[in-house]
Amino acid sequence: MYMTIFERLSAAGYKLTAPRRRILDVLRMSEAPLTALEVAARSGVSVASTYRALALLADLGAVSETSDPCAERAAGQTALATAPVELAAAAVDDARGRRYAICTATGHHHHFTCRACHATLDVSSAALETALAEIEQATGVRIERHDIALGGLCAACQRTARRSAEDDTMTEERA
Questions:
Q1: Pick from 36, 171, 21: which is nearest to 100 by CA?
Q2: Are 76 and 37 in contact (CB under 8 A)?
Q3: What does pTM read for this prediction?
Q4: Where in the chain are the domains?
Q5: What CATH code would you report for 1-103?
Q6: Is the dihedral of CA 34, 31, 58, 22 positive or negative?
Q7: pLDDT of res. 53
């Protein structure tokens, strides 16, 4: 059953507060996943409240949270130079390396993150879930959670890389 973000919050006993709404609006308007520091800066919500809201929204499955080891460090460098003291201090202390986006899939799924453009795709795989069930059966363990990070190049970045390689080849042939 598809549930709206408002319904997910309500079912879990939470309200769609003004800061949560601003955070969700920023994520909806963004063309690419954002770091928590970017969300805080764009939404005008404090850094601490942004982290709490993003954690809640990720727990409820409304927002995808994907690993990006360079994400917070890169945002932190910008924050140090341009942001208010609270945001700059958080950038120095923060090494979470996460990006956030509105989650478009319902039900259990995983995320693929493009290393070039940072696009995040919601993906699901019955074969992967079957493999996890086979691991449980073969080992006798009970898997209660799993974190599978899929990364590489999205289709658009692959096309760009191919075109660039073809252009380089043509340039070399002319020389």
A1: 36
A2: yes
A3: 0.64
A4: 1-103, 109-175
A5: 1.10.10.10
A6: positive
A7: 96
